[in-house]
Design brief:
Helices cover 47% and strands 18% of the residues. By secondary structure, the protein is an alpha+beta fold.
Length: 211
Amino acid sequence: MMIGESLCVGVLGAGLIVGAGFCGVCTGTSAFAAGDVGLMCALGLFLYLLLVRAGRAMVGIVAILAVGIALRTPRIAAGVVFTARGQERSVVVTSVQANEEAPGVRGRYFWSVEYRDGAPSSARIWRGVHTVHPAGDELALVYDPKGLVPPRGVEGATSVTDALTGLAGWVASLLVACVIAVVRSFRPLYSPGRPGSDRTGDQSATRTNRP
């Protein structure tokens, strides 16, 4: 019973978080694509473990893993979309702006671009560009013909296979942490030799709060 419940919690939680990220990229829904819904699913998993009185240490580990998955999944899902149907084109940088709204983030710039034929573009590029390009430089972009995923640069693009493998490692870690957390929320109600036990070896269990 304990193992079954813990596996169900882990699979359901991880499935909802990952599914929210991929759903956002496939539908273009901003709340899903930004990871907000995935974070809400992570919060739901966190609250469930608190309600069943799982150990605080394991709840913290689950929370970190769940939030990490929620933030990583939309980017990985976008990479999958680009691999499946993305197209490349060259654009010309018209202006460069440092990210002043997030001073804690170093080395992030936004590039305003236009197409090589002079047609303007409303896209502001920051993902996938790892070299500072002045105005007039050309950038290679990959874009989604359906317009559901914002375009990004192709510099230093990470292999989708490697990204999915990394995500699978996070999900596996979350499943293990959920199993341990839920199982540790139970303790034997009766144990051999405990005063007040009705019978020796009774395996009944109840939940307890473990650190």
